[in-house]
Amino acid sequence: MAETLASAFQASETGNSIEQAYAQVYPYLLMGLLVLAFVFVIGGLFQRFKSEKSIGWQFIRFTVLGTALPLIAILALTDKFGAETAGIFGAAIGYLFGKEDKES
Predict the structure, then answer these.
(1) DSSP letters of 49-99?
(2) What pTM value is reported for the model?
(3) Residue 77's domain spans which residues?
(4) How far, in Å, CA of 53 to CA of 7, rounded?
(5) Would you say residue 1 has pLDDT above 60?
């Protein structure tokens, strides 16, 4: 992977188009974002079970945020992010973060 990234940056310095460099890095960028979303969920669940806390409202809020942002980035990079998708993500995140926390 490091060789691919190095060759992508070298391609951009030698006069090759930035599109070629982006095409070489693109699959690794998508995989990194996907792994980030899974790591966030698995790490959060592991932390909750380790500390013997329940999965509460606050955990659900930040899990949705932690998975939605990488997924939004993936959809935007693949040109699949349209007005309908933006509305769905906006409504879900707005609903989760718009509710008043009952504990405070």
Answers:
(1) HHTT----HHHHHHHHHHHHHHHHHHHHHTT---HHHHHHHHHHHHHHHHS
(2) 0.59
(3) 2-98
(4) 46
(5) no
